[in-house]
Fold these 4 entries.
Entry 1:
Amino acid sequence: LQTVSNAINAPHLLRPKTLARVLASIEELQYVPNQAARSLRTKFSGAIGYRVFPPDRRGSGGVMDRFLYALSDTARSAGDGLMCHTASSDEDEITIFDRLWQQRSVDGIVIANTHYDDPRPDWLLQHRVPFVAFGRPWGRDLERHSWVDVDGAAGTRDATLHLIEQGHRRVAFLGPPKPEDRRSGWRRAMRAMRLPTRGLNAMAQDSIASGASAAHALLDAGDPATGFVCETDAIAIGVLRTLDDHGLRAGADVGVVGFDDSIGAQLVRPGLSSVNQPLDVAAAHIVRILLSHLADRSTPEHVVLRPELIVRGSSQRD
Amino acid sequence: LQTVSNAINAPHLLRPKTLARVLASIEELQYVPNQAARSLRTKFSGAIGYRVFPPDRRGSGGVMDRFLYALSDTARSAGDGLMCHTASSDEDEITIFDRLWQQRSVDGIVIANTHYDDPRPDWLLQHRVPFVAFGRPWGRDLERHSWVDVDGAAGTRDATLHLIEQGHRRVAFLGPPKPEDRRSGWRRAMRAMRLPTRGLNAMAQDSIASGASAAHALLDAGDPATGFVCETDAIAIGVLRTLDDHGLRAGADVGVVGFDDSIGAQLVRPGLSSVNQPLDVAAAHIVRILLSHLADRSTPEHVVLRPELIVRGSSQRD
C-alpha cells in the first residue's frame, strides 16, 4: 500500500523499476484516488465555497449570475469545484461557513456583495478560514484581508465625460445614498470640467420605478438635466421610460448611461449605454489569490479593476 | 472510538447512560465529524454535481440561473451541497462526471437542457451513477431513467386559448423546428377551436432578430396574423419590435405571448405575457428523486409539471 501511495505522491522515493511496475498496475486497474481518502491525507477537499444569490429580476439582472459562471469556470481550470449554497442573510451564510469549514468540505471561501457593517469578514478572519472577497471592505481597514473589486468611480467618470463630450452640460447622477463610490466618479468629472452639480445630485433606489420618478423631477426642474449617469441599469431603464413619457428621444435629446451592462441594457430600445465590470478577470484574480492563501502565502492582496464603458444608442447624438 | 461512532450513527446500540455520557463529551468538545472521514465510511460526499450554463444574454435570460438557485436552495434544505462545474460540450461534461464519480466527490448528478442525441444519460446509466434529468429524454425511451419536465404543450395551449378569448382568430406560432412540444400545444388548441393553422406555422430561432423578421413576414401576408404564441421570450420581444416598427400596438391591436417569464418579459413595454415554468417545484422533485436513488430506490420516476400563463399588457385588449 505504502509503495502505491509513494508512486503517486512521492515517485522519487521509489526505485525506477518498482515505480514502473506500480504505474503499470495503476494503468491496468484504471485506479483513480478516492477524493475522501485523499482529503483525509492532504487536508484539501478540492472545493471552494460560494453563496449563490437569488437571480435579480429588477432589470439590472444577470451580473451575479455572470460572476458565478466565471468563478465556476476559473475554479474548474484550477482543478477545483465550486460548492454552492444559498443563504437568507449574512448570519445564515456564516452558519454555512461554520459547517463547511468544520467538516472541511471546502478549502476556502469566496464572499461577494460586501457592504457596510458586513459581519462575514470578521467571522472568517477569526476562524482563520482562507477567503477572498469580491468587493472591498466598505467602511473598514482595506488591508485586513484579500479582495478584488471594480473601480466604480472610474466607470462613472468615463460615463460622465462621455456625456459631456456629446455636448451635455447638465449631467445628473441617480443612485442610492451609499456606497459613494460610483457617485464620486461623476462628481469628480463634473468638477474637473468646471460644471455645476447643484440640483443634479439625485437619490434613487435600484429599481425602474425609482429611476423613472427621479428622472421626472430632474426633467421638470427649471434648468432640466440633459444627461443621466445612473448607479444601475434598472435606474437608467426607468429614466428611459420617463423620457418616452415626456416625448423626449434617448440619445438625440437626452443622454443616459447605466451600470453593469445587464440583459436589460441590450434589450431596451435604442440600446442602453452601460459600464461593464470585467467579471472574468475578477474571478481569475479571486481564484488565484485564494489558491495562494491555501499554499500558505498569507499576505493579503488587493486588486482594483477598471470597468469599460459600452456605448449604445441611449447616449449617442447621431 | 467505536462507542463514539455508534453514539452518532447508531445511538440505539448504546445503553442510555453511555449514550448520555458520550453526547455530553461531544457537546463539550464541540465535535463536528470531518466530512472526508465521514465520506470514507458512509461512502456519501454530501454533494450533488451540476453543470452551470453560461448566462443567456439573448433576452430570454434568467431561466437556468433561476433553476440553479432553486436547485442549490433545495439541496441545502436536504443537507447537501451543490458542486458546480462548467463544461464546453456534452462530451466535456461527461469527462467531469467521470472524474467526480471516480473520486466520489459527488453522490449523484443532475443534468439539465436534455436534447435529441444527448450522450449524457447513456454514459450515466452505463456507469451506474445516480442521476435525475431536468428535461425528458427527447427521442428516447421515456422509462429509462428519472426525469422532471415542464409540460410545454400545456403552456402554449393556454397561451393560444387566451389569445382566442381576446378575440384573435389568426394566431401564429413562432419557434425552432425542434423539439415539437411547445408548437404542438398551439396546433392542438387551434384545431380544437376549429381555427386554421395554414400560413401561421412559422419558424424562428431563439433570438430577437429572428422573431422580428418572422413577425414581419406574418404581418405583411394577405391575411395577417393578429396573435403570436412564441417558443421563447426573445422571439416574442422580436415580435414586439416589429409591431412597433409597423405602428401596431401590442395588446390593443395584436396579442403576443412568450415563454419562460424572463427578465425581459417584465422589462419591455407594455409588459410581455409569458408562460412561466415552476422551477422551484421542479428542483424540489429532482432533489427528492435523487435522494431516493441514493437510498437505493432505483425505479425511475417521471414528473411532468404544468406551467402557468402570466398575463401582461402584450396580450390584453383593454
Entry 2:
Amino acid sequence: MRVAVIGVGLIGGSVAVAARERLGALVSGVDLDMAALEVAVARGLIDRGCGTVREALQGAEAAFVAVPVGAVIATVEAVLDAADAECVVTDVGSTKRAVAAACDDPRFVGGHPLAGTERSGAGYARADLFEGATWYLTPTRRTAPRSYERVAALIARLGAQPEAIQPEDHDRLVATISHLPHVLANVLVSQAAAAARHLPGFVGPSLRDAVRVAGAPSAIWTDIYLENGDLLALAIERTIAHLGEFRQALAASDAALITSLNEAAAAARRDLLGTAS
Amino acid sequence: MRVAVIGVGLIGGSVAVAARERLGALVSGVDLDMAALEVAVARGLIDRGCGTVREALQGAEAAFVAVPVGAVIATVEAVLDAADAECVVTDVGSTKRAVAAACDDPRFVGGHPLAGTERSGAGYARADLFEGATWYLTPTRRTAPRSYERVAALIARLGAQPEAIQPEDHDRLVATISHLPHVLANVLVSQAAAAARHLPGFVGPSLRDAVRVAGAPSAIWTDIYLENGDLLALAIERTIAHLGEFRQALAASDAALITSLNEAAAAARRDLLGTAS
C-alpha cells in the first residue's frame, strides 16, 4: 500500500517509518522544512521525499497530517483536495474540536496519538514510538464508518490502541492530562532556576522528571495552548483553587487537613497508575 | 570504624549498607519499627539490630539520624546524650532550620542528602543511592569545625558530594525544588484521576513522570510540609501568580505573551539542566 505523510517531524517521521516496517507500505513524505525532509530520507523514514502535497498524495490510500496544530486545518483541507476518493485522511494534532468542526469530509477522521518525547524532529523518530500507546480518534457524523475503520486498523498495525472519543471530551481530557502538566512544568522550572542560581548541583531525579517537558517548542505549543485555551484556563483555575486550599492548610498548620489532602492524592495516584506503580 | 544508624528506612538503610560496603564499617541499627529492623538485618544493611539508641551508640564514632522530620530534634537530642564525646552526629531530614536552632552541640551538624525515590522503607535501600548526589550540610557557629570535616569526609566516601549551606538558604531552596514539586504533583494527580474516570489507558510518559512523587507517605511528608510551611507557602503564592499570568494570556489569546513565557521556561530549563538535557 501507499501512505503519504505530511510533516516528517517526530510524530510524522515515526508514523512513516512504522508504516514502512510494520505495514510494508511505500511511504511518500513532504515537509515545508527541506532539512527535515532530507533527514527523513537519509534515515530511511520515508521512501520518497516530495516537493508538494499533491505529489505526495499520488496513489496514496492513507494520508497522515502531522504538522503543528496551528497549520492542521489548512493542511487537512489541502490534502482532502488532492487525495483520491478512496484515500482516508487523518491528523495527529493535540487538539480536536477545531479540526473536527472544520473538516467535515467522509474520508477524514481526526486523531491524536498519546506518544512523543520532549525531543522533536525527524532525527528522533522511531518505528516503536506508538507501541502500546492510546491513539484517540474523533469521528464525527460526517466521517464515513468505513474511513474510521480503515484508520483504526492502520494505527493498530502501527502498534497503538485506537480509542474513539468525542472531540469535546478529548480536548477536556488533554487540557488536564497533557496541557496543564506542561504549564506546571514551565512555572516550576522558572522558579527552580531562580532559586538555584549560585546553588549548583542540586537537581535530583524528582525535579528532573517534574521539569522534563518544560519549555517545549513554542512553534508547536503556543498554538496548542491557544486552540485549547478555554478548557486549559478552566484546568488552571481548578489548580489555583487547589493550591490555595493547600496554602491555607499550611498557614493554619492544619496537620489533619494536610494529611487528608495528601492521602487523597495517594488514592488518585493509585486510581491513575494502578497500585503497582 | 563503628557507625550507628537511627532509623533504617530507605535513607537510613542506604547509609548503613553504603557504610558497610564503602567504609568497611561495623554498623549498628535501631528502629521503632521492629519489622523494618528485621528487614535491615535480613538484607545485610546493618551488622547488628539494637533495641535502644544507647545500645546502638556504644563505641560509635559517627551516628546518622534518619527518622521522619517530626521526630528529628528529639532523636538527635537523645543520640547526643548517649554518644561519646568524640562521636559526630548528623541527621538526614528534609528541613534544616528547626534542627539547627535546637541542637547546638559541637558534635552535631545537620544534613540532607538530595537522594531518594518514591519508594520508602528498608526494602528499597541500596548502597549506591547517594552516588553523585548533593548532600547538604548545615554547620552552625556551635558546630566544631572538626565535626563538620569528619561528617563531610564520611558522606563523600558514601559517594555523595558534601555542600555547606546556611539552614535558611537550604529551606528556601528545597521549598521550591522539592516541596513545591510534591504539592504540584498532588494537585495534578487528583485532577487527572478525576478527568480520566471512564477514559482508560491514556497515561503517557509525561503524565507518569509528572505525578511520580504524588501522594508520598503522609507519615513523612505532613511534617516536612509543616516544618517548612512559611517558605513553602511563599513558593505556592509565586506559583499561583505565574499561573494567573498564563491564564490571563490564554483569555486574551495573546500568542506573543504565551510564546515569551514558554521561551523563558525553555531558557530556565537550560539553566537548570544544561543544554544537553
Entry 3:
Amino acid sequence: MTDHSQSLGQAVTARSSAASPAVVLVRPQMGENIGMAARAMANFGLCELRLVAPRDGWPNQKAVDAAVGAASIVERARVFQSVREAIEDFHKVFVTTSRERGQAKPVLGADTLARETVERIANGQRIGILFGPERTGLENDDIALADAIVSFPVNPAHPSLNLAQAVSLVAYEWFKVSQGAAPPFNIGHETPPATRDVVLGFFAHLEAELDAANYFIPANKRPIMARNLFNIFHRAGLTHQDVQTLRGVVRALAHGRKSRARS
Amino acid sequence: MTDHSQSLGQAVTARSSAASPAVVLVRPQMGENIGMAARAMANFGLCELRLVAPRDGWPNQKAVDAAVGAASIVERARVFQSVREAIEDFHKVFVTTSRERGQAKPVLGADTLARETVERIANGQRIGILFGPERTGLENDDIALADAIVSFPVNPAHPSLNLAQAVSLVAYEWFKVSQGAAPPFNIGHETPPATRDVVLGFFAHLEAELDAANYFIPANKRPIMARNLFNIFHRAGLTHQDVQTLRGVVRALAHGRKSRARS
C-alpha cells in the first residue's frame, strides 16, 4: 500500500457520518448479517449504522465477530424501537426492495441512488437507506415512510439478495461515485509504455534475427508476416522493461540456435 | 411478479453456461462462502461455478445449505486440482485482487470487466473470473496465469472484501450490462402521469375552494402564493388517480369546514 492510499484511507475513515449516507437495518434477524453488513460498509467508506429492533437484542457478539475489521461500526451502531424514530433526522429516505410494492414512488437503481446521494450530501442533506429483514423484506408501512425505492436488477427467478450483499452493492455504488470509479491502483501509471523508438528498435532487432534464421519465406509474404508479428507486440502495450526482456529472449534464442548449429 | 418477469427469469435460468462468464473459486476455505457465492451468482444470472482444491473437500453440505435457492449451481460445480486445469478452455481469464501485485497487467474495475465480458461472449469467447481464498487472496503464480486484473474501488483502510460479496459485485455489474441497468420494475410505466387538463382542473378546483376560504391574503401576493402551491403538486408528478384522491381531500376539507361553520 502506498503512502497515497494510506492517507486516502485515513481521510475516508475520518469522514464524519453526515458526509455519507446512513445504513438502517430494519428488524435484522441474524447477528452475522449485521456484522457482514458493517464490514461491507467499511470496505466502501460508510460508517453510520442504525438498527431498528434487532431480533436477537443488542449488543450482539456474533455481529461484532462477523464484522472482522469493522467492529467499531457495530459498536457505534444506534438502536431504535421503530423505523419512524430511526429516520427522524434524515432529509431523504430510501428503501431497498426486490419486489414491486404497488406504491407510487420513484424506483432507482443503486447507481442512480449513489449519484443522487452524493449530490444531496454535498448540499448538506442527511440521507438514510433502509434494508428490510432477511427473508421477508420491508413491510408496506415501512416503505410508505420513504421518498423513493431502490431496487437491484436481479434475475427474477432468484430475486432474494443476502442482506449484507444488498448493503454491499449500495455501498459499492456510493463509493464508486463519491471517490471516482477508478480502480485503487493502476499499473499503467507506474510503468509507462516504452517510447516508439525503443519498440521499433526491438522490432528491427527481432526482424534481423528472423532474417538470419530464414524465417520470412516466401519472400513476397514478408511484409504481411512482419506486420502481423509486430502487431502482436503492439497489442501487448510494451513497457521499456518489457522490451529489454524481449530483447534478451530474442538474443538467447538466436544465440542458442547458433550454439546448437555449431555443435 | 408479472408474466413478463417470469419469462425473463426462465430465459436467464435457461441461458447456457457459455453465454455468461464462469466463476472460479480458487482454494476456497469455508463452505458457507461457496454457497453464498452461488446464491449471488443466481441473483445476477450466472450459472457456471468451478472450484479449485476446496479446503474442506467436495461435496460440502454447508455450501448447499448457504446457497438457499441456488443449490443446483453448487451441485453442478466442477472441481479441479489446479488453477491451470480449471482455466484450460477459457479464451480470457481475469483475476480479482484488492492489492497491487507488481504484475504488469491491465487493471479493470468490475464495471469495465462487465462491458468487456459481454462483448467477448457475444463474439463466442469463454470467460473465467478467478477469486482467491478468504484472507490470503490469490497467489502471484495464479495471477500470472491471467490476462488482466479486476479490482474494486475500496476504502484502503478496509480493503478486504468478503469472498461471496466480491462474487456478488462482479455478477451484479455483469447483469447490469448484459440485461440493461434498469431496475426490475418501474411504477412509472404502469401509472402514467395525469394529463395537463386533469392537473389544471384540479388546480382550478383547489383555487376556487381556497378563494371561498379567503386563503389568498394579501390579494397582491395571490399569484405567487398560487404558483408556489401548485409547484408542490407539480413536483409530485401526479397520476390520474392521485388527482382523484386530492380532489376528494379538497372536497372533504371544504365540506367539513362548511359543516363546522354551519353548526
Entry 4:
Amino acid sequence: MNRILVIGAGRSATSLIKYLLEACAKHRWTLTVAEADIELAQKKVGGHTAGKVVKLDAAQPGDRRRLVSDADVVISMLPPGLHHEVALDCIALGKHLFTASYVSPQMYALDEEVQRAGLIFVGELGLDPGIDHMSAIEKIHEIKALGGHLTAFRSYTGGLVAPESDDNPWHYKISWNPRNVVLAGQGTARYLEQGSLKFLPYHRLFDSYRLIDVPGYGKFETYPNRDSLQYRSIYELDDIPTLIRGTIRHRGFCDAWHALVMLGLTDATYQIPASANWTYRQWLASYLPAAASALSLEDRVARVIVRKRVVQVMHQLRWLGLFDDTPIGIPNASPAQILEGLLLRKWSLRPTDKDMVVMQHQFEYELGAQRHLLTSTLVMRGHDADATAMSALVGLPLGIFVRHVMLGHFRKTGVRIPVTPDMYRPVLAELHDFGMEFFEKTKLLP
Amino acid sequence: MNRILVIGAGRSATSLIKYLLEACAKHRWTLTVAEADIELAQKKVGGHTAGKVVKLDAAQPGDRRRLVSDADVVISMLPPGLHHEVALDCIALGKHLFTASYVSPQMYALDEEVQRAGLIFVGELGLDPGIDHMSAIEKIHEIKALGGHLTAFRSYTGGLVAPESDDNPWHYKISWNPRNVVLAGQGTARYLEQGSLKFLPYHRLFDSYRLIDVPGYGKFETYPNRDSLQYRSIYELDDIPTLIRGTIRHRGFCDAWHALVMLGLTDATYQIPASANWTYRQWLASYLPAAASALSLEDRVARVIVRKRVVQVMHQLRWLGLFDDTPIGIPNASPAQILEGLLLRKWSLRPTDKDMVVMQHQFEYELGAQRHLLTSTLVMRGHDADATAMSALVGLPLGIFVRHVMLGHFRKTGVRIPVTPDMYRPVLAELHDFGMEFFEKTKLLP
C-alpha cells in the first residue's frame, strides 16, 4: 500500500493534507488530492513532491471511480451525504475508506460486505465525532479499571474563536461548515438526567443553556446536542443515569441566537420568492405583523422577540446587519441560506485570527463510598485563519490513523469507529505530540 | 347514471350519506357505502332501502376497483393521502370523482387524462376547503360587479363547540379529525399584510392570535393558516395588499395551546420508547430539565413555559390531565399521538352536545372615493354529537354538487374546484335551504 487519495480539500482538510504529505515523503508514498476547486487544492498541496492535485466533480461516478481505482486507501472529506457513493466504489474496487463523519446506519449496513472484501472502513475519526469518543472512552476505561462506577457523563465540544481574536458582540467566528452553524440543534434534543429521559425542542434549546467552567478561560454556555442516548452503548454506559453531549459557545451567544430562532430566521424548509431584491430589514420585518402603531421595527423586535438581556441582544442583532437596508442578493433563498450568507461575511476569521477548540468531559463516579467528579478539558488554539485548531483536530486523527493502517499496524476489517484501545491509543498518543493535551481536575463530591 | 359509491363513512360523512339516501330514494338511484368499520357504516345508512353497505379496506386495490367499477360516481371520504389511488382507479374505469379535500398538485396533474376520458373530478367541495371558497368568491364577484376595488380580504373558519355545550376550560371539543387538531399550524404560516409578505413560525403562531367579533357571540381568537398566498389567484385577487386565511378558536384557547407547543407536546416527528408505561406526569416532566431546587413540576412548568394568563393556562393544563399519574397506554407513541389520545377523551362531544361552525369573511374595498368593510359571518350549530354542523357543512355541498352532476346539470370535464358561478351558485342556493345563512354587516371606513 503506497497510494492515498483524499477527496475534498475544504476548510477541514488543511492539516490532514499537510500531515499526509509529510508521511508520504517519509515513507515514499504518494498523495492525490481530488477537489472541484483546483486552486484551493493546489494551495493546500503547495507543490509538495509527494502530492498531486486532480480536478474532480465528486458527483460524477466515472471520474470518481477512476481515481479510487488508482489508490490503495481513500479518505472522503466530502459532505456526509456523498460518503455512501464513495463507499460503494471502495467495495467494488477493493479499497479501504476513512472519514471524519458520523457512520450512518446505511454505512453500518455495509459491514458484512466490507468484511467479505477484506476491507477496513473507519468513520468518526475527526474531532466531534472522533477525539470526543477517543478521549472519553479512554477515561471511562481508566475509571472502570480502577473499580469506579460511573453515575454521570457530560461531554461538550465547541469550535470557537480565541479570546485574542474575538472582536464581535456574538463572540463567534466560523471555523467549520457555516451551513451547520445555522442548522445546529434543529429537531428535538434528548438526553438522560438523573435516570429520566429528557426532551428539549429547538425553540427552547438556546433559551435553556447551562454554564460550564473552563480553567483559565472562565464560563462558557452549553446546550445539548441531538440524541445523547445513542452514545450509551458506544461508551459502555448502558445503565448510567445522566448522559449529556452538548455544544459549547462563548457567554452571550445563546440568548441572541435564541432570538434568531424565535424570529424564524434559521428555517431551511422553505424558499422566499425574489429574496435577492429584498433588504435584510425587509426580510426581518416579514417576521413581524404589520405595525399597528408608530413603533419602529427595532422596538417591535425588542418587545415581541427578545426575552432576556434585551439591550445586549438587540445590539447583537443590529451588529449582524438585520436592520440594514442592504439587499440580500441571493435569489429564492431559504431563511437559513440568507442567514448563512450574512454570517459568512460577519463571522469570518480574518487572515491572522486564531480559532479555538474547547472540549470538556465531566465524569461523576463512585469509588468505594466516595463520589468523585473528574473534569477533563482540552483547549487548543489555531495559528491563523488557515491553520486552524479545528482543521488540526479534525484532520490529524484521520491522518494518524490512516498512516497506522498504511504501516500495517491495524488490520481489523469491517465498518468501525475508534472506540477500542487498539484504535484510540496510537491516535491519542501521537495527538499528544502535536500539543493536544487534556487538563484534568478531580473534586470529591458530598 | 344512477349508482353512487361513497368510500369512507367517518365523522364527516354522516350528513353526506343522509342527503344522498334521500336523493337516491327520490331519483331511484342507489348508494353504496364502503367502509372498513362495517357497523359504523350500517349505523349511518340505517337500513335505508336505497343504501347498501360493503366492507372495504381501501388500501386493497382489487376490492376497491371492483366497487368503483360497479358505480357511476365515486365520492372519496378517505384520508387525503388515499385520494390519488382512487383517482387512478376512476380514470381507468371511467368514473367521476368528488372529494371534500384539497386538490393536490398530483391530482391537478391528472387534468388532461381526466378530460380525455370525459370525466368530472371535483375537490374542495366541503367546508374549508369548500364553502369558504364558494361564499367568498360569490361575494368577491359581487363587489367587483359593483365596481369595487378590493384592498383586503381576511377569511376565518373554525369547527368549535356551541356555547351551551361548552363545559371545559379550553372551550373546545373535537368535531373533526383529531389528528389534525393536534397538528394544526405546524410549519410556517405566510400571509400578505399591507403589501408585504409575512411569515409566522409555528412556535409563535398561537402566541400571535388576533381577535374577531362574531355578532351575537362576542370575540373569538384567530391565527393564520399555512399559506394564504396560494389563494390569491384562485380568488382573482392577484394585486390585493392584504390576504389572510385563518382558523377560529374560542377566547382562551390559543394561550394554552401555545404552552403545549412550547413544551414540545405536539411534535409528530419522533417516537418515545416504551411510552405505554409512562404516566402523563412523567411525560410532561421529560420536557423540563431535572429540578435543581425543590420546585414542584407545576411550578417549573408555570415559570419556564407559561408566559401569559399563567393561572388560567395552568388550570387548562391541569384539567387536561398532563400532571396526572395516569399511564399513557400507547406504546412507542409520538408526542402528537399521546396528546391526541388524551384530547380524544377530554374533548369528546357528549351525545347531546352541539358543535358550532363559525366562518367569517372580511372584505375591504374602495367604491369611488369611499372605503368599505363588509363582514360576512356564518354561524351554524349542530343537533347533537352525531348530526354535527361540521358534518353538515362538509357533507352537504358535496352531496348537492354530486346530485347536480347526476342530474346532468354540470358537464365540464377535468380536475376542478368550485370557484365558478356555475359551480358555486346551485350549491350555495341549496345550502341556504338547509339553513346555512351568512349574516352581513357593512361599515364605512375613514
